[in-house]
Amino acid sequence: MPTSTLSIESILAPELTLCGVPGTSKKRILETIAERVARFYPELDENQIFNNLVARERLGSTGIGQGIAIPHCRLEDCKRVVGALLTLSEPINFDAIDNEPVDLLFVLLVPQNATSEHLELLSQLAEKFNDRSLCKKLRQCDDSDDLYNLIVSSEQESQ
Amino acid sequence: MATDLLLFIGLLFSLSILLSPLSSRIGMPILLLFLGIGMLAGEDGLGGLQFDDFETAFLVGNLALALILLDGGLRTRAASFRVGLRPALGLATIGVLLTAGVTGLAAYWLFELPLTIALLMGAIVSSTDAAAVFSLLQGRGLHLNDRVSATLEIESGSNDPMAIFLTLVLLSLAMNAGDGPVLETLMLFVQQFGLGVVGGWIGGRVLAAIINRVQLVPAFYPLLVAAGGLVVFGGINALGGSGFLAIYLAGVILGNRRIRMLPAVLQMHDGLAWLAQMALFLILGLLATPTELAGVFLPGLAIAAILILVARPVAVLLTLWPFGFHFREQVFIGWVGLRGAVPIVLALFPVMAGVEHAHLLFNIAFCVVLVSLVVQGTTLAPLAHRLKLEVPIGPEPRRRLPLDLPTTGDHELMVFELRGERWAEPLPVAELKLPPGVICSGVFREGELARVEEIAELRAGDLVAVMASPAMLEDLSKVFDTRPRKSPLEDRQFFGEFVLNGDATVGDVELFYGIDISRYEPDKSLSACFRKEHGHPVVGDKLRMGPIKLVAKSVDGDEVTRVGLNLHSPPHPRNKESA
């Protein structure tokens, strides 16, 4: 069955792969994410990214357990799928389903006219981050380049 | 003579107990095994024992049934009444009536028996036995959703009185060989049920009050529950009420009031109920004459087929339609009308009363129970799986010890054994996050006890002891995940990738996932949608919204508090083409 054509490589830029981000709270981290994404994609509005991510968290935390969160939302001016990968220097409270603090995040922003393909992608991401040994390696990365290379190469391995 | 008898009894019980692990291995109800051993020891079997003392069997049968119902009541959680009470009462009254009626009419038509005798046969086989169902499912590690399990459980506790009542009424009609006045029959019904309910309620409360006031040697509390239960049973029977209903209700009340030493009471009654089951089935097996059974095997098979394939499903469908059951759940409940000891004990009533055809009724009832145990007993676990009625549950602690002292509240000492996939790699103690209110008392490793601060990491094989209240069990079972490997029912696959709050609205889901849901108004909360679809929602209930599947993950009363969001459900064939 042909799966989604959206590989991690095509949605994640090295510039949005951030290692050891300092973060004190869930809100602060979402702000950082919005700011970094908007800096890299000027057509996107920082406030809108932040507000939509926060609104999604209000429906229920995107912390999927074991220290991992996948914040996601749709965006109006978004023309392509945008990803961002972060590891945190200190785990933060994310109200995750298992109450464990989060230190590994993959953010997914999708266009307003999101299709079932995007739901599929979200599901694949959750599946990917269910891999304990991958998550362990990601957490051990010392700089953003390593982190980027690791996540992109993990993609090729699994195919 | 007496020692020979005791030797014989001891041997029978030992054999039954030692062979019992076979039952879960071959998927046969354990009761069938006991029955088989009884028959083997009997007149046509290896034992060659002549036993046709119906009176002793009758006494043992009543005592055993009373103890089994008491144990069932003690284990029935009042919380399960929310989803199970009304449907179960429907099944226990109208359902039994319909089952008995359809089966009885079929017997009348098939065997040209007198109408009252045919209906008596229907009544005798009309009540179900859930103990057999649950021991089979638990042996397989299957857990049904609350709606189905609560309904089956309460039904089987409360339908025996109805079956007994119908049997007694029809028996008195058969004895008088005339038609009893309708009014008297109705009065008898009201008396049996009314006295049973009131007597059980008062009896249970009085017994609870006594237990909590007297100071006794610990071992006496469980015995007092058993003895008090028998007082309720015998007393209400003597007054002309349904003793079976009364002792079951007394058990429910005792089990749900905080009585002293409840864990010990439950533990001993578990043993007592098993003893009762064993005694009952062994003696019934002894009582039956297999060579006689062979003669009625075909008629017995016909009655069993009608009961299983027609009467029970019809009764279930007609009774459950107002209660928001899913069709799959109705199919399952319709199929698992497992017959246990009650029909055989009820079949002793006509024998004792000396009604004509009584031995035929007994033998047919025996055949029906055999067929039901074999056919339904062996198929119900695979069926529950096929019908997707299973719900994943977290791992249980290896040991739970309720502290049960005045100032400990409901705190327990729980010991978790670290094993399975999660513990393939050791976990640094610093990363161990215990839920609030939980205290780690120590870690056992290779026979040594260590404080958790003294060790660097937790690893497979460790036993971790914590003090916690049972409310924390769900969170704790995530921390100490001990499942061997990912099962097909793994949480994430069952409940989905993400979790939404139950008060999120349909509009929210539409907004964030870009799907169109016309079935519900946008401002309706997800919890309200579950209520609309399922009446009283239970964990595991599902809602489909476009390509997304929502699964009830936590339920508090009738409110779904957490909803699993399953993105990965296979898309609808139609959607697939358009995508």
Automatic annotation (TrEMBL), chain A:
Superkingdom of the source species: Bacteria
UniProt KW keywords: Transferase
Annotated ranges, domain PTS EIIA type-2: 10-154
Keyword Transferase found: yes
One GO biological process term: phosphoenolpyruvate-dependent sugar phosphotransferase system
UniProt GO MF annotations: protein kinase activator activity; protein-N(PI)-phosphohistidine-sugar phosphotransferase activity
UniProt keyword Membrane present: no
Name assigned to this protein: Phosphotransferase IIA-like nitrogen-regulatory protein PtsN
Gene source species: Halospina denitrificans
Species classification: Bacteria, Pseudomonadati, Pseudomonadota, Gammaproteobacteria, Halospina
Automatic annotation (TrEMBL), chain B:
UniProt entry tagged with the keyword Transmembrane helix: yes
Major site of localization recorded for this protein: membrane
SMART domains: CorC_HlyC
Pfam entry (one): Na_H_Exchanger
GO molecular function, one term: antiporter activity
Entries under SUPFAM superfamilies matching the protein: TrkA C-terminal domain-like
Keywords recorded for this protein, A-Z: Antiport, Cell membrane, Ion transport, Membrane, Potassium, Potassium transport, Transmembrane, Transmembrane helix, Transport
Domain of life: Bacteria
Membrane topology category: Multi-pass membrane protein
Entry keyword Transport: yes
InterPro entries referenced in this protein's UniProt entry, alphabetically: Cation/H_exchanger_TM (IPR006153), Na+/solute_symporter_sf (IPR038770), RCK_C (IPR006037), RCK_C_sf (IPR036721), Transptr-assoc_dom (IPR005170)
A GO BP entry: potassium ion transport
GO CC annotation terms, alphabetical: plasma membrane
Span of domain RCK C-terminal: 400-482
UniProt cross-references to PROSITE patterns, sorted A to Z: RCK_C (PS51202)
Residues spanning the membrane: 6-23, 57-76, 88-111, 117-137, 158-177, 189-207, 219-236, 271-290, 296-320, 332-354, 360-383
Compartments where located: Cell membrane
NCBIfam families noted in UniProt: PRK05326.1-1, PRK05326.1-2, PRK05326.1-3
Name of the protein: Potassium/proton antiporter (CPA1 family)
